[in-house]
Amino acid sequence: MNNPNNPRRLRCAVYTRKSTQEGLEREYNSIEAQRDAGQAYIASRRCEGWIPVGDDYDDAGFSAATMLRPALQRLLSDIRSGKIDVVLVYKLDRLSRSLRDFVHLYWEVMQENNVAFVSITQHFNTADAIGKLMMNIMMSFAEFDRDLDVDRARDKMIASKKKGLWMHGVPPLGYDLKNRRHRRLVPDPKEAPLVRWIFEQVAEGVPTAQLVAKLRSRGATSKFWTTGNGREIVGKPIDKSLLYKMLANRTYLGELRHGTDWFSSAHEPIIDPDLWARAQAATETRVRALTAPDASKIPFPLRGLVFATDGRAMTPWHTTKRNGRTYRYYVHTRALHESAKLLKLPRVPAGELEAAIIEQLRLVLRTPELISAILPQAAALDPDLDEPKIMVSMLRLHEIWEYLAGHEQTQMLQLLIERIVVHEDRAELRLRPMGLTSFVRELETHEGIEESA
């Protein structure tokens, strides 16, 4: 039993955060003000045994949208190690603006390690029932405020696109930006004729493989672009995948997209409606053949994604024995042309690799911390990114995975995975941040299946 005259010592840690670096150069900044408020609060409870720990837990220039903050991770590690009894913050939103994240922090970390939580300016702590009630109310308002910010940003994005402003980063091949500040698309005098020529060739029925060969002989590449911060995006040879994306891009008709909506008369078109219609009619059967399952082909869902440690691609390969059984492998490209035994190059059983990658991917998509690590990268590339929608879709993927057809599972894998590097004892999975938005749109088409499951 604790002696009121000699209370048990409670080790207290103050966590501070500021979203941007702005103002941190001042003699007395926001981080220091938050820390001083926390230290003063601890001093006021010294008679109850509260003492400050020696460490500072300051995250300067980190958003509350992610849990991957250095000081926060160090704080959580010290909590799990039993070094902290009380965590103090100036306001609740300094720790998190997401109810999901806070529930994880409080219930799965603090409560499990018997750590109390205090919000100084909101006058509550989790040592009593009223404090717990106030905590839940304040967190709901913090998340509501963040959702309002998301809605305002989305509304601003839609209004900008309706006015014809380009908000997607790198413009498509054929267009340039008239003014990078006002971001209006204008036809590029060198690239626009190439885009029209591609559509004309397709409308005339030129086979895709032949058209790709013609483009390579002309030295045609994807968009070469220099970003605002000086980073150069080098153009790559136009392949079938990029060709089909161009043929489906209604930006060439003078439209701008937001989600599934297209706004017309946004800028000067490169392709007229008649040429567009003829090109779409010519590609309709090709696209259907490309996306529909083909029972005559041996399935390799990781085709084009598997690489060896030397950077060389690993090619799908199969053999059928006399008993009619087919064995599938991913084989180092050089092994198909040289002696695999002499080169000691890897040959990986396709079934084992695919099962391991799919299981790992489903595990990643069910882990909020790992998703939070991916979302900021995707948000930087796609301003339209709806983070809550992506989070929910990823967490629920495993529920509908078994209901997807083989070619649908392959499409999901191709959207999400950037590269798989095969080592001697493991396979390294790298995700594609820009695939997140496309992944969610594809997943929405299967919501009916999910609801009936």
From TrEMBL:
Species of origin reads Lysobacter firmicutimachus
Domain named Recombinase is located at 172-289
- What positions does the domain Resolvase/invertase-type recombinase catalytic occupy? 11-164
What is the superkingdom listed in this entry's lineage? Bacteria
Can you say what this protein is called?
Recombinase family protein
- Matches recorded under Pfam families: Recombinase, Resolvase
| SUPFAM superfamilies in UniProt | Resolvase-like
